[in-house]
Amino acid sequence: MKINIFKQYSGLSKSAYVLFFARLVTSMGSFIWPMLTLIMSVKLGYSEKEIALIFLIVSIVFLPGTIIGGKLADRFNKKKIIIFFDLISVTFFVLCALIEPGNLMLIFFTIAGLFATMEGPSHEALAIEASLPKERDKFFSLTYLGFNIGFIIGAALGGFLITNHLSLAFIIDGATTITSTILIILFVVPIKRETIKEEDVNKYEDAEHKDTSIGILKRRKSILYQILLVAVSAFIYDQWVFIIPLHMADIFGTVNGPLFYGFIASFNGFVVIIATPILTHAFRKVFEIPKVITALILYSLAYAFLINVDQLAMFFVFVFLFTIGEILNSISFNPFLSRRIPSTHRGRINSYIGIFAFMGTILGKLLIGELVSAYGFNTGYSTIIVFSVMAAFLTFLNYQLDKRLFPDLYIKTEEI
Questions:
Q1: Full set of structural domains in the chain with CATH
Q2: How far apart are CA 300 and CA 236, in angstroms?
Q3: I want to staple 259 with a disulfide (CB 3.0 to 4.6 A). Which of 159, 246, 313, 374 is the partner?
Q4: Are 319 and 270 in contact (CB under 8 A)?
Q5: Is the per-residue pLDDT at 218 higher than 90?
Q6: Are the C-beta atoms of residues 293 and 397 closer than 8 Å to each other?
């Protein structure tokens, strides 16, 4: 029987399609974030160690902002928070475009990123509130697909803009951010509890809790452990925008390196567009954590292909395997959390995820930056592989715990 893989996205809430388009628009300008390593390396002349130290300082600045953003998301109107913080963020993006590359530009960029980070928990909580529990896999798959359709357009221009028109890159990022915000504010509507059918209610996220967010995590330990593992998985994933561009610049030079990195970034988006609907359908009967484990194994295999490599073709092999893992992780991790976190605590617990992700990425940059400087890229890749395998094993152990804590989520339902 012929299967229409795109038909699986029909019947979702109207907000899902608005968020799909909003994230598509945002990601058209967001190429500047993964290119930040190259900006500091090629434009500003920083070494691997200096870049890692800058990222560490930035993360220290971001951490309190993440916590504050989570608390605000649980207490105040999420749309108003998004508007306020995005306006500040866009203002500093524009200021980055008006000055020459240097330390002041990095300061403005950090401030823009800080307020974008503070808005994050409100954005994620609003997206969850606009979807039914049973449709989260397809909902997050669709919005992830939208992000990457936009990214493939932006990444194709990213290397060229970073090299020749850096100011324009900042302006595009700010313009797409504000456009996305307008769409979300006007058209994304949370689903009211009273309109949800009783059979569609998820008791684990529906009940109100007066307990603290830490208390929730203590009683729902599989969430806590998976959030702790975010630090490791973020470290593994983030090397895609740290060691890879540095390695390509080392092999192909400071002109072709950024250009070729833009090509493989575009290929990443292309694979996402083609493979996301296919993998969402193919893995529809697989629970969330096994998909996360598969993703971690694919990450380790992908990085293994770059040991002792200096051919551009092998970077495309890496990106293909890495992207399949990225897709599986993206369509499973957010649904996993959304079905287990009480709606009253989404903002705060989402902020914890951001904190551990920052810790993983920054400590990972420090570690890999030191290893690459001292021992070369092969040692860096080998270290990433070890962490990937370790994370996969720990995630498997957490899978056993999660089945005991949330048995109702492991009851097979009729596939839609």
A1: 14-190+211-407 (1.20.1250.20)
A2: 9
A3: 159
A4: no
A5: no
A6: no
